[in-house]
Amino acid sequence: GVLDRAWVLLMLHSGLRTGEVRRLQCADLDLEGLRLRIEQSKGLQDRTVPLSQATAEALRTYLPLRGPGDSDHVFLYRHQPLSPTYCYERLRTYGEQCAVTITPHQLRHTCATLLLNAGAPILTVQTILGHRHIDTTLGYARLYDGTLAHDYYAAMQAVEYSLEDDHGGMIASPDTD
Fold this sequence. Notes:
By secondary structure, the chain is mainly α. Helix content is 51%, strand content 8%.
């Protein structure tokens, strides 16, 4: 559970891809600075990704239990780097126990949605996820109805305020008679 909690939080809170989790090296972690370096990811892009406190704590809990391995990979299972199907199979098992279907890629989508709905700018989400094109990021994130309503009312309040004159009355728009 300690191993799985660490990589699940990495995917959920930092938007890592399964391959990025599997290839992550101990030297890539900066737990004090709450960030990690992803090298040569999809599209051969390098990026630095922030870590949440919960993720950093999960990694601090896991690393002393990691045990020896033939490599410097962060995540080892039976002293070997995670297999290409490890994350998928573990989530399938956990999902069966809870009667839900979940995939590693859904964690990445959820990360984008959580960040967007917490007020992160879409360009920030794009950078964290390592997307080359903003359209890809927009396909990942979904606005919650509550966030949409909040943003609408805040914007509409600003519009109405800008249209008021000094006496509280509405100023006619330029295209009205």
